[in-house]
Design goal:
By secondary structure, the protein is mainly α. It has two domains: 3-101; 104-145, no CATH class. It has helices at residues 3-22, 29-65, 67-70, 76-101, 103-119, 123-144. It starts with a helix and ends with a helix.
């Protein structure tokens, strides 16, 4: 089921590596800047593809090639847990690559984090709320009696 997308990504990654390291260097300044930008984007995509291959390959090997050797042993759960964890960690690794290489994404994430931090109450605000709640309860209790 996963062999077709995996094969396509491996082939495209190899073609990208070939194009990235064997590519021509432009002499025009604007073309050189464009080539540099394209090279950076290609390098980031290459890293993401390599992360996909490295993180997905153990899982695919466990479930297809070495299935008979792994199943039924004491270490089966550990191997499957490790390969699944590695496969799911790929998504976090991709976000990390985007954060490092795309300045606009980095700015948006920083804004989001700062917005979340500002909404979190400080220790003093929490203490004041606790005191206000206690006073309200005491007042309510006195009025009910």
């Amino acid at each position: 089921m996963y062999i077709i997308p995996f094969s396509v990504i491996v082939i495209c990654t190899l073609l990208t590596i070939n194009k990235l390291f064997v590519g021509q260097i432009s002499t025009n300044d604007q073309l050189a800047r464009s080539a540099y930008r394209n090279r950076r984007i290609s390098f980031m995509l290459l890293l993401m593809c390599l992360a996909y291959i490295i993180c997905t390959l153990p899982n695919r090997l466990c479930f297809s090639v070495f299935k008979d050797q792994i199943m039924g042993h004491d270490y089966t759960d550990t191997v499957l847990l490790g390969s699944n964890t590695l496969m799911y960690a790929r998504n976090a690794i991709d976000i990390f690559f985007l954060y490092i290489s795309v300045p606009a994404f980095r700015e948006d994430v920083n804004k989001l984090v700062l917005k979340c931090i500002r909404k979190m109450p400080t220790e003093n605000e929490l203490m004041q709320r606790t005191q206000q709640t206690r006073q309200t309860r005491q007042t309510t209790t006195r009025n009910n009696n």
